Amino acid sequence: MNDDEQYLIDQLNNCLGELAALINAKNQGKRRVQRAIDAYDGDGKLFEALTLFRLKSLFDEEGIRTQICRSDGSPSNSFVLRGSPGELTRAREDDGKLPNPSHIAIDMGDRRIEIHNSVEWPDRLASYGAVHELDISIAETAACDWLSDWYGKNEWLQHRTVREHAPLLGMELKFHRDVSTKALGREMTGLAYTTCPMMFVLGTRREAPYAVRAQVGSLRRLHRRGIKWSACLTLWQEKKHGHDRERPWAASLLPAFLKLWNKRLRSGEEYLEKRDVAVRPTRRKPPPA
Question: What is the pTM of this model?
């Protein structure tokens, strides 16, 4: 992570701290507080951007190469955040000649994965036209290429998910929404069941109650849908220790991702080896003289 990227993360952190102070100063009624949050945070986009770049820094800390890229995959010195749910495109500019949203590319050995924000993924149970947004998604570049080509095609997606075309990680973020309702857990269950990421995370600023955490954590039981790991994580809740402030991040997230990634690669290699053996012609011993 270079100095410019660290500066951006520090500035986003400061903005969230200022947001908390603004809420306290304007705490004269629930509606007024909600208006202050929406006006300052851009409907959760600040929280989304901060989480996206924190994910990038986690890979950097592990010594894994990351890079900010334009929509076409070329390197960039600036990042264009997707402002509303939309399609993933490989075109560098839109029809109005404005740059399309950026992404973060990560080199995983001889493969590349990408981090995107607010991308719409297909509903794996319905025909074309049904999509669901993931606030943060990580997927292989090949899956992103497939997705950018999928929009607009009248293709029927079967019940069984094509593993290579599903997200590796799907994250839903709730910054200024009440996380104490059981309905949130049911909403997350539906989102995970239809988008089928390998890992699913509900990230919140305040800790969610046990009912929501238990429901999200149990999503890993949907392993037949491709979900191998799930959790409800408190991402940026401040904890004061004297004069210091700590913004905790779940230390288990990246190790779990890397473990599942390596397991995914091994299972793919084993599958190819078995297939190769199956199609290889057998040699019969010559009859005895």
Answer: 0.78
